[in-house]
Specification:
CATH topology of the largest domain: TIM Barrel
CATH architecture of the largest domain: Alpha-Beta Barrel
Helix content: 40-55%
Oligomer: single chain
Number of strands: 11
Number of helices: 14
CATH superfamily of the largest domain: Aldolase class I
Radius of gyration: 18 Å
Structural class: alpha/beta
Number of domains: 2
CATH class of the largest domain: Alpha Beta
Strand order of the largest sheet: 1-9-8-6-5-4-3-2
């Protein structure tokens, strides 16, 4: 498969593994890159020294391209960028902040920069900031989402129509049918999160992986609309959060409820009651925990089967 994104990132397939917190360690990242996609280390749950360690281990496990995802809202984002540059990273995916913050610096260092956006306005800003591509992330995605709640199928064609840089689709994509659908909308690649979270190589806790497999089409909810929309699997914590919002809790109260370690205890430590279990609406399509190699084989087969079916429909 050859697209502008495979050329830009020097990868075989236009499939990018999202840099998810507590999920995207070096084992998952190297496995994805070795299969011809692009693995992204999730720096959002790492300190600079730990990030360096993961980069070193990933370099030892693959000779294929991989990158780092850095949420710009992190207070130490500059340190994470420096640590990545020190270790020779050339591909940066940034999110949750102003794309102007580091793009000029990274471009001067010869890096490729991709920024995650949730609407057309921010897509244009990312292009103006000098980004090489954008990830258009619909509200179906797990984790933090845009306040406008634009769906992937509505967002991607609008970005494609207005931007001159390649668009990568994200949000709710969990199989080959979704990949082909995104490419049909004009995307040059896809970014997949939750489906990769439920793989053998994912650094998430087994409890979290099992919960993804168990989840159905109504398993996720949007919570914390006052302080930063997030899609999570319904559990005791999520239900309490929605009740608090309905009762009119203020931002300070909601932040105290959310605390700082909910993601870690849920995703990494496996607490299914008190943890924040970030996952997208694609959970209803996930029924097992394969290796990354098995998953890639499946995705590519699904793309081929769906493409043949679509060609037959077009022929009448």
């Amino acid at each position: 498969m050859k697209t502008k994104i495979t050329d830009l990132l020097n990868i075989k397939y236009p499939i990018i593994q999202a840099g998810m917190v507590w999920v995207s360690g070096w084992e998952l990242v190297s496995a994805v890159s070795n299969e011809g996609g692009l693995g992204l280390i999730g720096a959002g749950s790492m300190k600079p020294d730990l990030l360096k360690e993961h980069i070193k281990k990933c370099n030892a496990a693959t000779d294929k391209p991989f990158g780092v995802n850095i949420p710009l809202l992190r207070k130490d984002a500059d340190e994470l960028v420096k640590a990545s540059l020190d270790e020779g990273i050339k591909i940066f995916f940034t999110s949750a902040g102003n794309p102007k913050t580091f793009t000029s610096l990274l471009k001067e260092k010869g890096c490729t920069v991709v920024h995650v956006v949730a609407n057309l306005k921010y897509g244009i800003k990312a292009q103006e900031a000098g980004c090489d591509a954008v990830v258009g992330e619909g509200v179906e995605a797990g984790g933090h989402n845009g306040a406008d709640q634009i769906t992937t199928f509505c967002l991607i064609p609008q970005l494609v129509d207005k931007l001159n840089i390649p668009v990568i689709a994200a949000g709710g994509i969990a199989d080959g049918r979704g990949i082909l659908a995104a490419l049909s909308l004009g995307a040059e690649g896809v970014q997949i999160g939750t489906r990769f979270a439920a793989t053998v190589e994912s650094s998430a806790h087994q409890n979290f992986k099992d919960e993804i497999v168990k989840a159905g089409d109504q398993a996720t909810v949007l919570a914390f609309k006052k302080i930063g929309l997030v899609r999570i699997i319904k559990n005791d914590f999520a239900i309490r959060a929605m009740k608090a919002e309905s009762e009119g809790w203020n931002e300070i109260q909601l932040r105290e409820l959310l605390a700082t370690k909910r993601e870690r205890i849920g995703i990494f430590e496996g607490d299914l009651i008190e943890g924040e279990l970030e996952a997208g609406q694609g959970v209803g399509l996930i029924n097992d925990i394969p290796t990354v190699k098995e998953l890639f084989e499946r995705l590519l087969n699904e793309i081929e089967i769906t493409n043949r079916k679509n060609n037959n429909l077009y022929k009448g």
